[in-house]
């Protein structure tokens, strides 16, 4: 099981603003912070997300094919998360919409270029 995911940043303040807004919409706040690292989540809850300057001192880079998926409660929250991301320095990677099979998602990148999505699965009969 995943405990948390860490993403690299080259601008801690800009990244923190982005994740404060995104995680706030998901009902999570900062739960750990020092001069290098900030973690958002809910103690005892699901996986958290961390933002850090790379330990080796080199610039943070984006992993090609790497994405963090944030589970939303419904399609309206998917749309809100997508809008919040773009309003806080994120960029579009695919507007919210039905991707088939009850999978509804919106894709975006954070200010450092890390790819994320917000999604919900609406299966018939649930």
TrEMBL record:
Residues 1-121 form the VOC domain. One of its GO terms (molecular function) is lyase activity. The keyword rRNA-binding does not apply. Gene3D superfamilies: 2,3-Dihydroxybiphenyl 1,2-Dioxygenase, domain 1. It comes from the Bacteria. InterPro entries: Glyas_Bleomycin-R_OHBP_Dase, Glyas_Fos-R_dOase_dom, VOC_core. Keywords: Lyase. This is Lactoylglutathione lyase. It comes from Tsuneonella deserti.
């Amino acid at each position: 099981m995943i405990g948390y995911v860490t993403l690299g940043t080259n601008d801690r303040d800009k990244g923190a603003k982005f994740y404060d807004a995104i995680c706030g919409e998901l009902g999570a706040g900062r739960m750990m912070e020092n001069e290098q690292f900030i973690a958002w989540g809910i103690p005892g809850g699901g996986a958290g997300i961390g933002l850090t300057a790379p330990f080796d001192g080199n610039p943070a880079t984006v992993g090609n094919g790497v994405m963090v998926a944030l589970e939303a409660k419904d399609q309206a929250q998917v749309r809100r998360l997508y809008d919040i991301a773009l309003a806080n320095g994120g960029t579009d990677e695919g507007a919210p919409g039905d991707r088939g099979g009850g999978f509804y998602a919106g894709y975006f990148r954070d200010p450092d270029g890390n790819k994320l999505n917000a999604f919900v699965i609406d299966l018939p009969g649930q």
